[in-house]
Amino acid sequence: MDTKYIIGIVVALIIIVGAFLVLGGGGNSEQKISIAGSTSVQPLAEKLATEYMKKNPDVKISVQGGGSSVGIKSVQDGTANIGTSSKSLKSDESTGLTQYEVAKDGIAVVANKQNTVSGLSLDQIKGIFTGNITNWKEVGGSDAKINVIIREDGSGTRDAFQEIVLGKTSNDTKVAFVKEAIVQSSTEAVQQTVAQDPNAIGFISFATVKDAKALNVNNVAPSEATIMDDTYKIQRPFLFLVKGDAQGAIKAFIDWVNGPEGQAIIKDDKLVPVGKVVTGNSTK
Question: pTM to 2 decimals?
Answer without folding.
Answer: 0.69
